[in-house]
Amino acid sequence: MRPRSLKLKVGVYLAIALMAAMGVFIALVIQYQRAQLIAQASEHVAQVSQVISRSNQAGIDRVRIFNKDGRIIHSTYPPEIGVTVDRQAEACYHCHQSEKPLARIPQDKRSRVFSSTNGQHLLANMEVIRNEPSCYNAACHQHPRAQSVLGVLDVVYSLDNMDRTLRTNAFALAALALGFVLLASLGIGILVHRLVYVPLRDLGHGARRLAAGDLDHEIPVRSADELGQLSTSFNSMTAALRESQEERNTWARTLEQKVAQRTKELRVAQAEAARGEKLASVGLLASGIAHELNNPLTGVLTFSTLLRKKMPDGSPDAEDLDLVIQETKRCAAIIRRLLDFAREKKPEKKFHDINEIIEETERLIERPAHLRDIEIRKELDRSLPPVWVDADQIKQVMMNMMVNAQQAIDKKGTITVRTGIAAEPKRTDPGAPPVRMVEIAVIDTGCGISEKNLERIFDPFFTSKEVGKGTGLGLSVSHGIVRAHGGLIEVESEEGEGSTFRVFLPLEPDAETAELLRSGNAT
Amino acid sequence: MSARILIVDDEDIVVRSCLRILAGSDYAVDVARGGAEALEKINETAYDVLLVDIMMPLINGLEVLEHVKQTRPDSEVIILTGLSQSKTALRARELGAFAYLPKPFEPEEIRGLIAQALARRRAAGERPAP
Question: Is B112 inside a domain boundary?
Fold first, then answer.
């Protein structure tokens, strides 16, 4: 398993790298020193042999023998034979400081390192020559038995070779150490580059792009260590930022839509209010006009009727008077409708089957429609529950819708009447809670309504029909009735394609009525 | 003796129309051009049938009707109105009006209603007085 923590990773890899480098280093040094030591040993053996065979050879500077009085009795350097050395000299001091030679001198006191006057680096070793039986028993009788020390053997070595070797070794070691350091540095450098620098560079790059607003950039995750985790966290943060930004954007968009929706609702409400005011003033005006006009119409109708009686049927005068009578009656009818409109008749509601109301209305216009080659299609939802309405008023609304639809169709066409429960609850006023509604759609394939006229079709006295064909009150009255039922009328139209009027009526009676119905006080 | 009719209306054209419609009949027709004049005439004369307009200044048709029914309960009153409203129609019926006729009306409607009113009055007259 690969190490997961950076600390551990650097530690482990560095240890492996150093151990490898050290291993190589130590192996090299050992090998080198072994070679050196072998060389030295061989040289040493050679020197020892050479001391015996030839006393004046390379490496050995001098070999001298002193007698007990300090006189040089033999030397490889002949000029010093017979010279007596100063016992107080440093080399002699250890033994002779008490004016009497010691029987035993420790080894470390017997050898000495010094430089000769000509700059040679030398190592000297003294060996005491003791009196032995072979000496005092020899035939020569040179040494008496009582004498313990016969003299001193002093061998002086040159250290130049050793110095050279040491210098060479030092250079070799320095070169090896340098190589080792370079190798280790290179290894560490590569590791740091791969483990630390590259992920940090990625992070820095990612941070700069994020700062510049690029929320889509993803930092490559190269490992599972701390830096890898940091990259992952950074990516999560970027994703969270992106999400929140998207959320904010969505929110801003929906806010715009909501504002537009509310503005539309407000405009509708304002139009409603304006329409209401207009209706009220129209009501007053209608009452006044009705009264003022009906009196003169009474005169016109009376005298034209009486005059007509005097005319023989079929005469031109009789025909003229018939026209006067007919038109006077039409005036009276218009005034009556005006009054109907002005009269705020409160709906007298009961539970009624909407489909039945529609079928009754349809029967009234079926024949004239058929004569004009207009097909009436009924798509009625038979599962609709009874609705709390004034049947006469709703019949008036349906009649108005169907007559309008018929009049919109020039020659041949179709009127579809569809009932059902509205797909979604509707609110009648901007602030009101949405209410479940029954939807009655009257769809015609007629001439349609221009966009300009669509806004005004519910206004009193607005008509697009020819003079004499409509009072411009039908839709206005229908609108008033539907509003009085707590419902609403919607219209959509495409010029030349046809129009769709949708009447929405509350599926259930309002809370107050529902309460009354429950307590059994309402019929 | 011919039946006595009183026309009560402040509108000249309506009065003239009624007079013209009833011309040629054998009714004795009288006219009052306002509520006050009508009350005076009602106090003086017992009319068989009264044609009364509702909307008149000062004393309106319903008040005239009320007065007639109080002073001459036998007289029949036909209410004429230029502003047909179910509320006033209902009130007129309650006060004992014989009929409620919206303007404009046709000559035959007036003639027919007067004939019916007179017929009812005769029927009532034939009954033994209470």
Answer: yes
pLDDT score at A56: 43
Answer yes or no: is B9 within a domain.
yes
Nearest-CB residue to A298 (from B14, B85, B86)? B14
Mean pLDDT value across residues A167-177: 81
CATH number at residue B32: 3.40.50.2300
As for how many domains chain B has, the answer is 1
Q: Tell whether A336 lies on the interface with B, counting CB pairs under 8 A.
A: yes
Chain B positions touching A336 (Cβ under 8 A) are 84, 102
Helix axis angle, A226-310 relative to B107-126, nearest 10°? 70
Q: Residue A343 burial by CB count (10 A; 0-12/13-18/19+): exposed, middle or buried?
A: middle
Task: Note if the pTM is more than 0.90.
Answer: no
* B130 domain residue, yes or no: no
- Residue A292 with chain B: CB contacts under 8 Å: 82
Q: CA–CA separation, B101 vs B52, rounded Å?
A: 10
Give me the domain span that covers residue B49.
3-124
| Closest of A122, A157, A130, A162 to residue A146, by C-alpha | A130
Task: State ipTM.
Answer: 0.82
Asked whether residue B114 is domain-assigned, the answer is: yes
Which of A295, A304, A334, A337 should one mutate to test binding to chain B, selecting the residue with the greatest count of B CBs within 10 A?
Answer: A295
